[in-house]
């Protein structure tokens, strides 16, 4: 043991400061590791999508046009009301980490957009037939 009482307290204080700094350093290291893991996962997802698109492209280039169209109809879906526009379907929850109010608002906006697209399509079809669309819809 140390004969001087003040040296005991100085030793305890230095040890306490050391432990505090080590704890803070470990916490910062944990945050850095989690951030790096998140960034790696994000880059991996993007790379997966890029490679998947490249595989599809290479397969399409190796097929005859008739077969290519058949496979295109299998892995894609029509976009909106125009059945000629097709897109690759990716299942992803777009409402993740959103408030219920934001979800409801975005669903309403999407429904309005679909209704407007359908009205525009109906308008074009009826215009071709020579019928005024607002008589059928009930608008003046």
UniProtKB/TrEMBL annotation:
Any GO BP: calcium ion import across plasma membrane
Membrane in keyword set: yes
Superkingdom classification of source: Eukaryota
Transmembrane spans: 6-31
Assigned keywords, A-Z: Membrane, Repeat, Transmembrane, Transmembrane helix
Repeat keyword on record: yes
Coiled coil (residue ranges): none
Gene Ontology MF term list: calcium channel activity
GO cellular component, one term: plasma membrane
PANTHER family linked to this entry: ION TRANSPORT DOMAIN-CONTAINING PROTEIN, TRANSIENT RECEPTOR POTENTIAL ION CHANNEL PROTEIN
This protein's name: Ion transport domain-containing protein
High-level lineage: Eukaryota, Metazoa, Ecdysozoa, Nematoda, Chromadorea
